[in-house]
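Deliverable D4.2, example record:
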Amino acid sequence: MKHEPQGDIEAKIVAAFERLSQVFHQALWEVSWRNGLSATQAQVLVYLLYHGENKASVSELASRFGLGTATLSASISTLQSKGLVVRTRNEHDRRIVYARLTPRGRRKAQQVAQWTKAIQLEIAALDATSKEQLLATLLDTIARLQRAGLISVTRMCTTCLYFQRNVHPDPQAPHHCGLMNQPLRLSELRVECAEHQPVQADTGEA
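Output generated by the structure prediction step:
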């Protein structure tokens, strides 16, 4: 059997990610257009839908989507004019501004969130082990890209202070959550966690 050079494999993985990016971009653009939104506005609504209390600070949203605060604020203003979000201020620090979904915004966000359903259906055809391994590999890759400064800060298990990698013998639950003090099954790894605490830059890998 002929083995391919390592660089070729890495290039093919990057190319595969690029193709996946095209699929997501096209699906997001289509659902945004159908709902009279920009892609950024649609992403903000969906993020707020699955975020604790359906709200997040403007600076957090800007960081999450890799945008300037002014650009993100303009999107929030448009969503507010459509009655989909409201702005509120932190009770203890009036400089911190939150965007929160309105009831109408929550309904709209639920409609927009359907854009991933077709992709999820294809992934559902994989067996459980393949899905767990795929999730673990993707989260690992995102964590590496974050540490390299190539992606905005994420609140995943693999970038969390409480995450302890490969400390248990069970291959289906090899990692540990220090906050919950229990093993983590691969299927339990989170992409967004409200209790996330970032690892300091000088601590190295989690």
